Amino acid sequence: MAGRWTAPAGQGTAPVDPAAAGDSGASRTAEGPSGRAAIRNTERSMNMSRLSEQVARRMTPQQRLDLLSKGALVFDGRKQADMLCGLIAAMTKEEMAEATRLLAQAQDGGNSCSQAVWDGLWKQWGRVDPVGCVEYFAANPDSKSRTDARFLMEGWLEVDPDAALAWAKQPKVTRLDAAAASMAITWNSNGDAKRLGEELISMPADSPVTKECLLDYFDLASLDKGSPSAAQIHEGLPPALQEAAWPVTLQRLTYTDPQAAKEWLEKHADDPGQDYNDAGRLIYELSKHDAEGTAKWAAGLPPAQGSRPHPAQEAIHRWLGADREAAMAWLATLPADSPWSAKAASE
């Protein structure tokens, strides 16, 4: 599986000269030791010492790919990153698809690649061929995370922020496109929650990009004076954005204070935007301390909007696991047509 699973990408850095970032190194092939000597020196090093981008630029594309193929099999993640990150930063547009294939092949074979290597790969692809990387993600979405898409965008913003922002402001459908676009829009706010909030107000509230940007907005707003809670940040949003921010609010509150999340859910369960998909974590946290009370409380929550599962399903399941006899006795007292009846629980 090629991609990442952890660690958020940081904000984009200041734009740099595209020529410097994307230079294939052709004008400097005669400088210093030859590419062949560079690769021999690297292979000799039992410690896999850090390979600099400057040295990697003196290699031919095939030499870089050959070394990448060997480095992908290095077990020690730190040594692998030292060996490959500089190498990847020297790669050109023409090398990116093959480099990705080689890393994925090693990982699918059982040697997980360093996260720093994957991050560097997506960022470099964003520098040298962002549209190609977007197309690659569209064709291979399942093993990619939103943070992979943000590293792609970080590289694009380095070399051509105007084009990156223009692309970001076009309508998006897929989760990866939305994640990349939100990175650009957040980057353009320069870390200012108020400025990002103004941008969000101008965007369609039901856009997947808006929902992604709200994750960044909550991050920035939580750092404002007074360190407002997720509930307070939600309360300060316009109604249309409150609807879009319903899931992230419940999620953030659950992480920081499950009891506060429970109280917020009771108050806002009937609001537009209700989304019980993230309620499972809250049920888990509450059930650890009081499985019976959590099940009875969840059973009283309003019906789920759409086809999403109701929190009571998870809560009752956990109570049945903790004390099946007591749970079944309570379920038997419910009306036969109740979705939480003993009959329903036994099916």
Explain what you see.
This protein is mostly helical. 63% of the residues lie in helices and 0% in strands. Helix 4 (61-71) runs antiparallel to helix 5, helix 10 (161-168) crosses helix 11 (175-188) and helix 16 (246-256) packs antiparallel against helix 17. It starts with 17 loop residues before the first helix and ends with a helix. The model is unreliable at 4-33 and 43-48 (pLDDT under 50).
Write the layout of secondary structure elements.
Blueprint (H helix, E strand, L loop, with lengths): L17 H5 L12 H10 L8 H5 L3 H11 L5 H13 L6 H13 L6 H14 L1 H10 L6 H14 L1 H8 L6 H14 L4 H9 L6 H14 L8 H6 L3 H6 L1 H11 L1 H11 L10 H9 L3 H9 L11 H12 L1 H8 L10 H5 L1
Helix pairs in contact: 4-5, 5-7, 6-7, 7-8, 7-9, 8-9, 9-10, 9-11, 10-11, 11-13, 12-13, 16-17, 16-18, 18-20, 19-20, 20-21
Structural class of the helices, strands and pairings? mainly alpha
**How do the helices and strands follow one another from N- to C-terminus?**
HHHHHHHHHHHHHHHHHHHHHH
Number of helices: 22
Indicate the percent of residues in helices: 55-70%
Q: Whole-number radius of gyration?
A: 25 Å
Distance between the termini: 36 Å
**What portion of residues belong to β-strands?**
under 5%
The low-pLDDT segments are: 4-33, 43-48
Provide mean pLDDT, rounded.
87
Task: Give the strand tally.
Answer: 0
Per the principal axes of the C-alpha atoms, what is the gross shape?
A: globular
The major sheet is characterized as: none
